[in-house]
TrEMBL record:
<dbReference type="GO" id="GO:0007165">
    <property type="term" value="P:signal transduction"/>
</dbReference>
<keyword id="KW-0547">Nucleotide-binding</keyword>
<feature type="binding site">
    <location>
        <position position="37"/>
    </location>
    <ligand>
        <name>ATP</name>
    </ligand>
</feature>
<dbReference type="GO" id="GO:0004674">
    <property type="term" value="F:protein serine/threonine kinase activity"/>
</dbReference>
<protein>
    <recommendedName>
        <fullName>Protein kinase domain-containing protein</fullName>
    </recommendedName>
</protein>
<dbReference type="GO" id="GO:0005524">
    <property type="term" value="F:ATP binding"/>
</dbReference>
<dbReference type="GO" id="GO:0004712">
    <property type="term" value="F:protein serine/threonine/tyrosine kinase activity"/>
</dbReference>
<keyword id="KW-0067">ATP-binding</keyword>
<comment type="similarity">
    <text>Belongs to the protein kinase superfamily. STE Ser/Thr protein kinase family. MAP kinase kinase subfamily.</text>
</comment>
<feature type="domain" description="Protein kinase">
    <location>
        <begin position="8"/>
        <end position="321"/>
    </location>
</feature>
<keyword id="KW-0723">Serine/threonine-protein kinase</keyword>
<keyword id="KW-0418">Kinase</keyword>
<feature type="compositionally biased region" description="Basic residues">
    <location>
        <begin position="242"/>
        <end position="255"/>
    </location>
</feature>
<feature type="region of interest" description="Disordered">
    <location>
        <begin position="236"/>
        <end position="262"/>
    </location>
</feature>
<keyword id="KW-0808">Transferase</keyword>
Length: 338
């Protein structure tokens, strides 16, 4: 039966991101607990219907590492998406509570994320586009699953019209405007794994002269996301291979009729994006703290040249993943610790 608004009773808040909020709900006809994601879409009814049609393919996505989809519906300015409720929440919330996540657990997480990505790509030709700790969820059965992947082109467009979201997990080639490929998801996976292992966003200390960078972890407020969008749309050509060419930034800003002066945050994000493009990728550090196989794995995820970077499927046969498969890591016990 189709999902409808009247059948759901809200029983709590699960969180909010740039695009909307997520509620814990009971589906009254079945008694199932679900997560209802409310996405504010400022779009014509025809566009919303198109989004619903596109979301329909989620009904065919079944994998142990993909959050299940129950259905979606439109309510005035919103699209509501009903998902499997993951009672331990997202990995960003978890590591902020527990501190750095044990590397053996991260091995299992990496395996889950890559299996999910491989399923999405091999079976449905879907590229996730938004891998980050807040889109990797855990439950008390010890399962790790990914959510919020880009199934609906129209939904992506509609959200992009309003918000940009955190772009700090973006690969260098994406920052430079290249097409999304499944390799971009691998980069984002590598950044996320380092974040979980260190218990902090890996770029946070890279620019010690900028205290604002520390708020880049977590979410950006809509205002900040707006700033980011503005700078991205006007300034992406400043973030490029040739660090300094003729561009004198002043002219650039003037010609766009927007002043970036005084927008300290805006500049920090641009600087971060520049850093991702121009500087060596982060690594699992300090050396020797983590198994060498995990270091090699993360280094491969973060190869700056997307052609050299392995696909999710290739990564599944890296030594660290083979070791992980044979290892007894009790994720149920782990999730019972928080
Ligand atoms: P962004 O908007 O930048 O992508 P986000 O991923 O945190 O950030 P949402 O996707 O709106 O934003 O999710 C908000 C929060 O809701 C998540 O951080 C997560 O903790 C929680 N959440 C999302 N989906 C579920 C789910 N299926 N089960 C349990 N909690 C969920
Ligand atoms: Mg999310």
């Amino acid at each position: 039966a189709a999902m409808k608004a009247d059948d759901l009773r809200e029983i709590g808040d699960l969180g909010a991101g740039n695009g909307g909020s997520v509620k814990k709900v009971t589906h009254l006809p079945t008694g199932t607990t679900m997560a209802k994601k409310i996405v504010l879409i400022d779009a014509k009814p025809s566009v919303r219907k198109q989004i619903l049609r596109e979301l329909h393919i989620l009904h065919g996505c079944h994998d142990p590492h993909i959050v299940s989809f129950y259905g979606a519906f439109v309510t005035d300015p919103n699209v509501c998406i009903c998902l499997e409720f993951m009672d331990k929440g997202s990995l960003d919330g978890i590591y902020k509570k527990t501190g750095p996540i044990p590397i053996d657990v991260i091995g299992k997480i990496a395996f889950s994320v890559l299996s999910g990505l491989t399923y999405l790509y091999d079976v449905h030709r879907i590229i996730h586009r938004d891998i980050k700790p807040s889109n990797i969820l855990a439950n008390s059965s010890g399962e790790i699953k990914i959510c919020d992947f880009g199934v609906s082109g129209e939904l992506i467009n509609s959200i992009a019209d309003t918000f940009v979201g955190t772009s700090t997990y973006m690969s260098p080639e994406r920052i430079q405007g290249a097409q999304y490929t499944v390799k971009s998801d691998v980069w984002s996976t590598g950044i996320s794994l380092i974040e979980l292992a260190l218990g902090r966003f890996p770029f946070a200390e890279s620019s010690s002269d900028d205290s604002d960078l520390s708020d880049l972890e977590g979410t950006l407020s809509p205002a900040r996301a707006g700033n980011l969008r503005m700078s991205l749309s006007m300034g992406l050509d400043q973030v490029e291979r040739r660090p300094k060419k003729k561009t004198d930034k002043k002219d650039k800003r003037k010609s766009n009729g927007v002043s970036l002066q005084g927008g300290g945050m805006t500049m920090s994000i641009l600087e971060l994006l520049q850093h991702i493009v121009n500087e060596p990728a982060p690594r699992l550090t300090p050396e020797g703290r983590f198994p060498v196989e995990s270091e090699q794995f993360v280094d491969a995820c973060l190869l700056k040249d997307p052609d050299a970077r392995p696909t999710p499927k290739e990564l599944l046969s890296f030594q660290w993943m083979l070791d992980t498969k044979n290892k007894d890591v009790d994720l149920v016990a782990w999730t019972a610790t928080f």
